[in-house]
From TrEMBL:
Transmembrane segments: none
Cofactor: FAD
Entries under Pfam families matching the protein: Acyl-CoA_dh_1, Acyl-CoA_dh_M, Acyl-CoA_dh_N
Domain Acyl-CoA dehydrogenase/oxidase C-terminal: 224-373
Species annotation: Billgrantia tianxiuensis
Classification via InterPro entries: Acyl-CoA_Oxase/DH_mid-dom (IPR006091), Acyl-CoA_Oxase/DH_mid-dom_sf (IPR046373), AcylCo_DH-like_C (IPR036250), AcylCo_DH/oxidase_C (IPR009075), AcylCoA_DH/ox_N (IPR013786), AcylCoA_DH/ox_N_sf (IPR037069), AcylCoA_DH/oxidase_NM_dom_sf (IPR009100)
Domain Acyl-CoA dehydrogenase/oxidase N-terminal: 15-115
Keywords: FAD, Flavoprotein, Oxidoreductase
Name of the protein in question: Acyl-CoA dehydrogenase
Annotated Acyl-CoA oxidase/dehydrogenase middle domain residues: 119-211
GO MF annotations, alphabetized: acyl-CoA dehydrogenase activity; flavin adenine dinucleotide binding
Family from the record: Belongs to the acyl-CoA dehydrogenase family.
Length: 383
């Protein structure tokens, strides 16, 4: 049984505790799922999460980041694919929620009900962390845009019903020349060029755009606002990546505590060995520290902060990096079982690694934090 004392922290309210209780009961009944066919499983998970009402807060006005974090942490603790399915509904529609027109927001009813899957198409072969280097081009053609280019590592690629796509419209060099578009999956010219396999199977794809035509009304926000839109979306959802890592780490700690109590070595339980106790203490410390950073960032955003770039970067960096260490210790404590395919800690070991890369790699988060600290000091000096 996982420690739930964090639910009483002042960052959270009674409604969050009710949500956690309701979701935990659902997870106990519904998870984990069979991952043999990840496409079919993801589609069904989105439908089931929608029918249960857990997708309501992923889109629309007034997104509650603490609720998103609680849901991702809980789902990740039970089933990494369930967390993935939930997360993409929010990230994939974030631009529509924050900047979309009334017509574009009609998609949100479908995604919240689990009737349509969403995807966030930003990364390209030549531009991952450096968003300003996007090569996909959207050229104005009368009352349409003609789009050519390629995206890669797109979550839900190949199974999504709607994509938010970022492309260069060249109002200015670099980041200032990007725009965002809403792209239904059946748009002619959108190609699924390759399905990508990773160490922890998720639906990912390389997308191509071959003279894809979109009406001008497909643009989300204003021309040239694409970078701002992407950063605003990530500002909301980056903390939730830390929450997913926290869920993985909390499950690894739970499994390790159980292992330590029930496994004997040299005539005593593992739990009696001081070295093992040291490992468990470090794991518990990392879990609690990560939780504090994650829910601080989420609370700060929910309290009305326009940007939480620094707080979200700290939460994601610390939670994902330390979760990797927690899970590594869990594998070590489980011995041979820890690397046996299908064992829970083995699956956690594969699940956690990608979180240190996507939505801003760990090294990029360090740059973000350092720049924020330097800027804060400069501001203080000039007051």
């Amino acid at each position: 049984m996982s420690d739930t004392s964090f639910l009483d922290w002042p960052f959270l309210e009674a409604r969050h505790r009710d949500l956690a209780k309701h979701l935990e009961a659902w997870c106990q009944r519904e998870l984990p799922r069979d991952h043999a066919d990840v496409d079919a499983t993801c589609i069904q998970l989105v439908r089931d999460l929608g029918q249960a009402g857990f997708l309501e807060g992923t889109a629309g006005d007034g997104i509650d980041v603490r609720s998103l974090c609680l849901i991702r942490e809980t789902l990740a603790r039970h089933d990494g694919l369930a967390d993935f399915a939930f997360a993409m509904q929010g990230l994939g529609t974030g631009a529509i929620s924050l900047f979309g027109s009334a017509e574009q927001k009609q998609w949100l009813d479908k995604t919240r009900r689990g009737e349509a899957l969403a995807a966030f198409a930003l990364t390209e072969p030549r531009s991952g962390s450096d968003v300003a280097q996007l090569d996909t081009v959207a050229e104005r053609d009368g009352d349409h845009y003609r789009i050519n280019g390629e995206k890669t590592w797109i979550s839900n690629g190949g199974i999504a019903d709607v994509y938010t796509l970022f492309a260069r419209t060249d109002e200015a060099p670099g980041a200032k020349g990007l725009s965002c578009f809403l792209v239904p999956a059946d748009t002619p010219g959108l190609e699924i060029r390759e399905r990508l396999e990773t160490i922890s199977p998720h639906p990912l794809a390389r997308l191509g755009f071959n003279d894809m035509r979109l009406p001008a009304s497909a643009m989300i926000g204003q021309s040239g606002q694409g970078f701002r839109i992407a950063m605003a979306v990530l500002d909301v959802f980056r903390s939730t990546v830390g929450a997913a890592a926290l869920g993985f780490a909390r499950r690894a700690l739970d499994e390790s505590l159980e292992r330590a109590r029930n496994r004997e070595l040299f005539g005593a339980s593992l739990a009696d060995l001081q070295m093992v106790q040291g490992h468990l203490a470090e794991m518990a410390l990392d879990v609690d520290a990560a939780a504090l950073l994650v829910y601080r960032a989420a609370w700060t955003k929910d309290m009305g902060a326009e940007r939480v770039t620094r707080e979200a970067a700290m939460a994601k960096l610390y939670a994902t990096d330390r979760a990797q260490q927690v899970i590594d210790k869990a594998v070590q404590l489980h011995g041979g079982d820890g690397v046996r395919k299908g064992h829970i800690v083995e699956s956690l070991y594969r699940e956690i690694r990608a979180l240190r890369i996507y939505e801003g790699a760990s090294d990029v988060q360090k740059i973000v934090i350092a720049r924020s600290c330097l800027a804060q000091q400069d501001t203080a000096r000039h007051k």
